[in-house]
Amino acid sequence: MVERRPFLTFLSHAVLIMGILIVSLPVWLALVASTHGETAFTGGTIPMLPGGEGWRNYSTMLGKGISTSGAPPLAAMMLNSLIMALGIAFGKIAISILSAFAIVYFRFPLRQLAFWTIFITLMLPVEVRILPTFKVVADLGLLNSYAGLTIPLIASATATFLFRQVFMTIPNELMEAARMDGAGPWRFFKDILVPLSRTNMAALFVILFIYGWNQYIWPLLITTDARFYTIVAAIKRMADVADALPQWNFVMAAVILAMVPPVVVVIGMQRLFVKGLIETEK
Q1: Hey, which residues does 71 pair with through a beta bridge?
Q2: How far apart are CA 77 and CA 56, in angstroms?
Q3: How far is CA 266 from CA 185, 206, 225, in A?
Q4: Domain 34-278 in CATH: superfamily?
Q5: Which residues contact 269 (CB under 8 A, 6 or more apart)?
Q6: Which residue of 92, 106, 151, 261 has the smallest Cβ count within 10 Å?
Q7: CA nearest 23: which of 247, 275, 259?
């Protein structure tokens, strides 16, 4: 019998509602700020209710940009961020699943050493190795290019580790059965391992897409051509204007627009995302 405790139920709901309000307040303030004119922030107070300039602010940012802040139209920058996020997500998944497949199913000398060498790279994120990485990218002529934005961030020890754990849960009998049916390594990988890893790939895609979309330091460092600006780095450029106050209504409109694609990806893939994270047996 489940004991009913109305006070504890009320308390738990109150804590959850308070947490939702605390998390959503900054988003609400950004949304409200994006619907006002720039003069609404000169008095030192923050409006709490939406204004009537939202359509003008969003259409300006998407279609024209604001030249005073060096921000081209956001539509082009959102496309650049989308290309970067998709390139990083698909590249990380492709390289990681092939690496995990080789480590788990192929017997070669120093196999475990190879895995741990990959795993140790977790301690070397791009922020730690940013100077040598920039030097290599510059020497290869990849500055101001989509290749320069994506390739240095594609390798992923975390995704390799997760795929390795997934493959280790798959019974060896499947591999033996495929071998008896005349399937080679590539066919076993393509027809058996990839379908069984679909939910895990979806969960990783959501995480890696958001990781790629939110990249800030690397795009800010290697892009000097406005054609390759990403939206997250552009928000920084818009907020840091010289000899003038930032146009916060336009900055917040850019912030809200930058939130839309990751939210759409999370909502659209929520079921596969949760299933891929909790699924442990095949």
Answers
A1: 66
A2: 19
A3: 33, 6, 31
A4: MetI-like (1.10.3720.10)
A5: 202, 205, 206
A6: 106
A7: 259
33, burial (CB in 10 Å: exposed 0-12, middle 13-18, buried 19+): buried
Distance CA 146, CA 255 (A): 22
The answer on pLDDT for 29 being more than 90 is no
- In angstroms, the CA 77 to CA 61 distance is 11
d(CA 267, CA 208) in angstroms, rounded, equals 15
pLDDT surpassing 60 at residue 69: no
For the stretch 138-170, pLDDT in tens is 999 889 999 999 998 887 788 888 888 888 888
Q: Using the 8-state DSSP alphabet, how is residue 153 labeled?
A: G
Every domain of the chain and the residues it spans? 34-278
71 phi and psi, to 5 degrees? -110, 115
Which secondary-structure segment (H or E) carries 265?
helix 248-268
**CB half-sphere exposure, 34, CA atoms < 13 A:** 20
b/e 184-194 (16+ beta carbons within 10 angstroms → b)? eeeebbeebbe
pLDDT-based confidence at residue 71 (cuts at 50, 70, 90): low
Residue 250: CB atoms within 10 Å: 23
| 53 close to 35: Cβ distance less than 8 angstroms | yes
Please report the pLDDT score of residue 210 as a whole number.
92
From CA 45, how far away is CA 257, in angstroms rounded? 24
Among left, alpha and beta (phi > 0; psi -120 to 50; other), residue 277 is alpha
Tell me if residue 223 falls in helix, strand or coil.
Answer: coil
CA distance 256 to 271: 24
Tell me, what DSSP letter sits at residue 94?
Answer: H
Contact between 149 and 219 (Cβ < 8 Å): yes
